[in-house]
């Protein structure tokens, strides 16, 4: 391991001196760039990680979601910021397979003056849920499209419910077909939308509402509701959706990728800091597989250079005081002292793959026990359905309770998969940490579930 | 905070602008429109048209809207008729001697979650259930009647309206295509024949009506003194999707138990150590017939044993 590190650091030094002119370098360019960033890492608060944002459109089938998406690319293509994607290309987007799950989704990329956007458009509720669970693209914000001549429809409630379910915090409203009606009606649509948004727990009074006509913009119209309305929508997206910031305020957390012994010094664990700031001589906990070991960070190194602190995103080696190599296992977590609780009991959203996606043929019942894989580790896990459900069919998604054989740390939003006979049958994300429950004699089948937690 | 302040200034600006530019009566009209829309739920453009036609008399406008709704619904339904609708629900309603299984489709699963869709589903299922009661021809242990989209639309719902009319109204409201796909009406002609049903996802408290993505009807015989296995067996049918009941003498079990399509040879869902046949023997069960709908599946060739009859040859009590 040490050897590998030395070679890597030599390699980075090497590439700094010579131009990137051979193939092997190109292959590793991402790796290299990460290393170079690490060398120059300095504590900067509020550092913007990337100017990237995931958005989606939701709305009624006939209200012009697809036309809007096409219009955005068209308007930006004229400004040289995107490639024009026609209505038909978006509408007939092929089914994609993300982690083996079939999702009907159109992904369109474009960039505004400030950011790059990945734009998702799905036809159905289940598609958005699968998109979220498989992690194909997490949506930071959604544009709710509503036609001015129809107003909100009965199913608009279901659209907003979905936005809540997939955890979208920022919603923008685009009132489409605004050229067809007078101001009075637009105001009414706006009032109704604000009321509806408030009903669903969004701040209805401050949600930006933009009126325009996607069709006009698509036809290159430069009047008020044409292309300028699309630019206004993009400007609002830039200003209203906050940028993703590296989390430097939370207590630090680092999943362990590897560990080795440095003779005469002790045990070094290697990994990438997920969040927070690590400082030399901080107290820390090493957690996982039922163990909670207290330790201190004696030294932090970023590629052979000892540093006094390291930030989220840094790949570091940490020397742990009084730690035996035997106690460290890949998949454990190093966290700030007393910042995290281990548990073997979690709530999760899960999707069971259909037979045609390679999943099970038969339904799933409570007490279903299989191996769970997440991050760099795997462990035996039992799945219990919500008590209101008798069974789940392949192709269903829903909330389940997970019980692990040993205590582990899992954070909300952490993805996992369930494999049966070396075949992935389900994938999901953790939504809640629950109180640990007893596993009698290490037998998951004998666990008594307590649903009231 | 900055955003909020911005929004407030915008709101105040709008308010002031409105006071300046529009006469007070415009505001009153607008609120009349808002009220009418809230009350009726018709599209904004139509509400406005109705108010304009009736000089802002909201009662008259509402009456006119309700009158027009049917026609507008038909117009919308005709316009959307060609669009694929493969989402939706399967619903069942049953009592001891009768059962109805109905599939209603729509374009997106958002609509399938809406209350209005659920109401439509229930109306259709009740109509089919009533049809099972009034459907008189008796032949064999059970009478089965398979209805296609057109026949189902001709059934009368609660209040004497045709289902197809209710459906057109519904299409007018949600602006999405919807199809009464198919239905299955059953009636038991012997006392010992029982009918039961199951849908997935099942409701928390079992009732005689439920709706879900999958549904099944089952007719069976079982002596009364034993624990009733009908519902569990019906759950098995929904879960394992057998293709046919299977005959012990003619059919052979498949090599891989996962691929088994004959009901009797399948592993029993609630206790895989037994086959369905063993469970049936232990409990003196006899399965007469079953039918399973999965929402959005292409309508397969008719189940064996089901005779397709034109509606008008069927005697009804009305």
Automatic annotation (TrEMBL), chain A:
GO biological process, one term: mitochondrial translational elongation
Pfam family, one: GTP_EFTU
Primary location group: cytoplasm
Family: Belongs to the TRAFAC class translation factor GTPase superfamily. Classic translation factor GTPase family. EF-Tu/EF-1A subfamily.
Keywords, alphabetical: Cytoplasm, Elongation factor, GTP-binding, Hydrolase, Magnesium, Metal-binding, Nucleotide-binding, Protein biosynthesis
Organism encoding this protein: Manduca sexta (Tobacco hawkmoth)
EC number: 3.6.5.3
UniProt GO molecular function: GTP binding; GTPase activity; metal ion binding; translation elongation factor activity
Record keyword GTP-binding present: yes
Alphabetized PROSITE patterns for the sequence: G_TR_1, G_TR_2
One annotated Gene Ontology cellular component of this protein: mitochondrion
Description of how the protein assembles with itself and partners: Monomer.
Domain Tr-type G positions: 50-249
Record's keyword annotation contains Transport: no
Family annotation (CDD domains): EF_Tu, EFTU_II, mtEFTU_III
Name this polypeptide is given: protein-synthesizing GTPase
TrEMBL record, chain B:
Residue ranges constituting the Translation elongation factor EFTs/EF1B dimerisation domain according to the UniProt record: 99-249
Signal peptide span: none
GO cellular component term of the entry, any: mitochondrion
One Pfam family in the UniProt entry: EF-Ts_N
Keywords noted in UniProt: Elongation factor, Mitochondrion, Protein biosynthesis
Molecular function terms from GO: translation elongation factor activity
Subcellular location: Mitochondrion
InterPro entries, alphabetized: EF-Ts_dimer_sf, Transl_elong_EFTs/EF1B, Transl_elong_EFTs/EF1B_dimer, Transl_elong_Ts_CS, UBA-like_sf
PROSITE patterns in alphabetical order: EF_TS_2 (PS01127)
A biological-process GO annotation: mitochondrial translational elongation
Keyword Protein biosynthesis: yes
Record-stated family: Belongs to the EF-Ts family.
PANTHER family: ELONGATION FACTOR TS, ELONGATION FACTOR TS, MITOCHONDRIAL
Function: Associates with the EF-Tu.GDP complex and induces the exchange of GDP to GTP. It remains bound to the aminoacyl-tRNA.EF-Tu.GTP complex up to the GTP hydrolysis stage on the ribosome.
Protein name: Elongation factor Ts, mitochondrial
